[in-house]
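User: Hi! I'm a student and our assignment asks us to look at how structure tokens line up with a sequence. Could you show me two examples?

Assistant: Happy to help. In each example below, the sequence comes first and the structure tokens follow. Example one:
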Amino acid sequence: MWDFLILNPMVNLLLLFYKLLGHQTVLAITALTLVVRLAVLPLTLKQQRAAQRMQELQPRLLELQKKYANDREALAREQMKLYREAGINPFGGCLPLLIQFPILIGLWQAIMRTLAATPMELVLLSQNIYSFIPDLNSLIPLQSRFLWMDLGQPDPYLVLPVLVVVTSWLSQKILTPPAADRQTALMNQQMLILMPLMFGFISLSYASGLSIYFIISNLVTILQYYLTPRPTPAAKAESAGMAKAEPVKRSPERSRQPARKREKGR
């Protein structure tokens, strides 16, 4: 089912791009990455907007954490009330990520599958190619030479792994919202170090074509972040106003109190 729905379409689309773009593997990987990122763009934008709105609520959330530091139940209740008033689902940003994840994994596997370097890998690749599209079988094995590299092998000079680490750090840095407490800040800082290093290790261990995909995907993330409209100061103020608690209403007795005092003064 996975091959039928995810892997096979991406493998054949990559081979089509390879055929149309002059048998240039790097261009084919770039084109497929851009197409997939464009397909999931509505989901990524939704996830980004949810993160921005959560970021706008951070000052209010921090106030609640200080106010109810010793009462977890009250803190959770007030936080959910704040989310409802602001019209925010705190878990709304997770669903787009969960939908994107299998698609991006399929893209990763498609690149690895088409860069087959051994006879066994070539046999597996032939099983993913659609027979009704003419001449696709004749394209394999793909041209894997690019500059000093064999795209089916790790970069011997470590240039691509370094670029993967740097671009992964930058893309994660700009997408990580400010933390409302010290514990979250420490966790974000750890992830900011560990995730780029993990992708760098993968780039050291697997085909350079996969590193090309990581770099392009990270650059697209950075570009998308800076091209996405930010909330204007007026919109931020409106959002903050919606999130604020309603003012305490004066009771009738207290409102009549000044009048009583005035009567006594007479």
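Example two works the same way, sequence first and then tokens:
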Amino acid sequence: MHKRLIGNLNTAVLLFDANLKLRYLNTAAEILLADSARHLVGVSAKELFKSSDPAFLKNLKHCVASVEPLIDYALKLHRVGHGIFVNFSITPLESENNLTEMLVELLPIDNRLRISQEEQLHAQQNTARLMVRGLAHEIKNPLGGLRGAAQLLDLELPNNELREYTKVIIDEADRLQSLVNRMLGSNELPNKQSLNIHEVLERVRWLVQSECGENIKIRSDYDPSIPELLGDKNQLIQAVLNIVRNAVQAISTHGNVTLKTRICRRVTIERQKYKLALRCEIIDDGEGISPEMLNKIFYPMVTGRAEGTGLGLSISQSLISQHQGVIECSSEKGRTVFALILPL
């Protein structure tokens, strides 16, 4: 009964013996350490924390010697690919005045920060989106009148050379109309059906690879065990396509874009908890995004390219939000990752 309760906790729990060999870890700890209990049980604390903050091992040894509980904060825990910061709690367990086991709890700080940042970003994006939609509506009405007047004028002009000017007005009005429609976004609710996310990604990969030529490779790294999800295929294609095209444009002449899928467990998206979620990463090895731009890239009309409209990422975020998901971004020179997280 106790084991089942600990196994279902959201806090990562590890149990070491008096020799600091790992005897047990719950599901949350497996997720945090990105490895299974089958591989980790029996491993020493020295081996488990060898690439992490030295304070992990130092604290454990101190607790073995003193047989007293200890708490430490913001220690960097290494796991495959990157590190995360955790709060670290140790409770010695005794039997007949002899130390038998060490109960260790790890609480990721990153999760709290991510949820807080996610909520703040979501609120800011909603405000910006409402402002842009209001502005777009104000532009749309006089634009229609301007185009209509140009068409009437075109019919009255006897000179074909003068009609060239009205044609420019009509064409530019149409271009602005198209831009305004994109700013307003789709009013259609997603037509959700059961689908394979890899069909969506392969469609995007084929489209973009045919556009960018052989100097840029669009690679795939898929987890074939991912179950089908409920979604609008066309909307998901559009959301991923916008991001992959941006990734290609971030690469100067030669480079790689990787589409990667993995399963995430016990994910919180906008304070809603899900047992399973899909994490789809679009990774490029381009120049990266500047820290000043990183917090603004999902706002409408914000772009780092002179020829860009700044609507692609905003539209993608909106489409993924309609699927109860979220898009996260991290970037450094040579590695930019856009992660689409969708509940399964």
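Here is something you could point out in your write-up. DSSP finds eleven helices and twelve strands in the chain.
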